[in-house]
Amino acid sequence: MLKLLKWLDKHILEILVGFLLIFIPLYPKFPLIDIKHTWVYIRLEDFFVALTVGIWLIQLARKKVSLKTPLTIPIFLYWLAGGISLVHAILILAPRIPNFFPHLALFHYLRRIEYMVLFFVAAATVRDLRTVYRYLGMIGITLFLVCIYGFGQKFFGFPAFLTMNEEFAKGLPLYLPPTARMTSTFAGHYDLAAFLIFMIAIWGSLIFGFKNWLVKIFTLVLVFASFMLLLFTASRISFTVYLLAVSLMLFLQKKKWLILPVVIVSLFLSQKVTGSAERFAKTLRVRQVVYDTRTGLPVAAVEEFFATPTPTPVTIAAKSPQEPSLPTPAPTTPEENLPLGSGYFSLEGLTKEEALAQIIRKPIFAKSLPVATMSSEIATTSGEFLIKRAIVYDISFTTRIQGEWPKAIEAFKRNRLLGSGFSSISLATDNDYLRLLGETGLAGFFSFLGVLATFTLLLRLGLKKIKIPLARSILIGGLAGIFGLLLNAILIDVFEASKVAYTFWMVLGIIVGLIQLLLPEKKNLFKEAIEVATQPLTMMVFLCFLAPLVFGSALNNYFTGDDFTWLRWAFSHRFSEIPKFFVSAEGFFYRPLAKAYFLLANPFFGLRPFGYRLVSLLFHLSSALGVFLVILKIAKSRLAAFLASLFFLVHPINAESVFWISTTSHLFAGFFYIWGFLSYITWRTSNWRGKNLFFVLTFLAYLIGLACHEMMVTFPLVLVFYDLIFSQFKKEQKWYQKISIYLPFGILLNIYFWLRNFVAKAHGLSGDYNYNLKNFPFNFVGNLTGYFGELLFSFHFIPVYDALRNYLRTHKFFAFASLLLGLIILLKILKRINFRKLWLKKEFKLVTFAFGWFIIVLLPFVGLGNIAERYLHTAQLGFFLILGLAIEKIYEKIKKVNFKGSIILVLIISLCLTSFYLTELEKAKKDWYEAGEIANKILLALPTSYIDFPSGTDIYFVNLPLRLNRAWVFPVGIKDGVWFIYRNDSIRIFQMNDLDQALDLAEGKTPAAHVFLYYQGELTEVKR
Question: Domain map of the chain by residue range?
Answer without folding.
Answer: 2-271+416-533, 278-404, 941-1022
